[in-house]
Amino acid sequence: MKRSSTRWLVAAGLILAAIPSLAGAQRAPGGLRELSPPANVLPKQLETVDVEEHLGEMLPLDVKLKDHTGKDVLLGDYFQSGRPVIVNLVYYGCPMLCGLVLNGVAKTIGELQYLPGKEFEVVTVSIDPKETTDLAAKKRDTILELANRTDFGTGWNFHTAEEGEVQRLADALGFKYHWVEKEQTWAHPAAIFVASPEGKISRYLYGIEFPASNLKLALLDASKGKVGSTIDKLLLFCYHFDDDSKEYVLFAQRLMRYGGALTLVCLGAFLFINWRRSSLRKS
């Protein structure tokens, strides 16, 4: 298990979310009271917010969810099509961070040649057990409208769940979050998760923006090349995921090895053709 910290991104989201309450701060004798910790100090409410990677582990496919239409479903229902699945945990009443993550996902999906419901599925689940189906449906409509896409169809579904069910899913993903009573908000990381068609966690992507090339390769990786064209599969062969940068990078060593072999084959073919032509002329 590998841990990748996203706490400072979460901190930025919480600070932005708390701006309305900060605006009403009172002056204390001798000047303004300190409202936030120094820049290099992590707020206490974020100390337990993180993502602990569980790559290769199975998701609990029996987690019970309710989709944006009010239908009771299981997480495993989205793994019946043989397609990879993007999973993300948010809450629909989030004042800042969740909206940025969802907008980032929608924007990136809009740049892909693949479509949810055709090459992959997207499953969004609220971490707030008090949120309703109506709220899930409204958030879905808002995100798809902002994405200006009408062809996502049934491939991107928004859900609510009981506390125990969403906690099981979060634990399996290594997604650590908690309720902050003072701010009346959920402290949580910014990440999305890509799972294989069998339900194994394949890739973690962090932040609020997801380069289309990264998501495309993550889907190819999760599907073991079953999604995409022959050229896409060749791209996957030439790239690998770098754990430090959390991005797909060109696999230079592999490219040089096979590129060199291809060069030798081409050179050999060229020499053979010239030799044959020369032999035919002489005869």
UniProtKB/TrEMBL annotation:
PROSITE patterns: THIOREDOXIN_2. Keywords: Copper, Disulfide bond, Membrane, Metal-binding, Signal, Transmembrane, Transmembrane helix. This is Thioredoxin domain-containing protein. PANTHER family: ELECTRON TRANSPORT PROTIN SCO1/SENC FAMILY MEMBER (PTHR12151), THIOREDOXIN DOMAIN-CONTAINING PROTEIN (PTHR12151:SF8). Gene3D superfamilies: Glutaredoxin. Belongs to the SCO1/2 family. The chain crosses the membrane at residues 255-275. GO terms for molecular function: metal ion binding. It comes from Vulgatibacter incomptus.
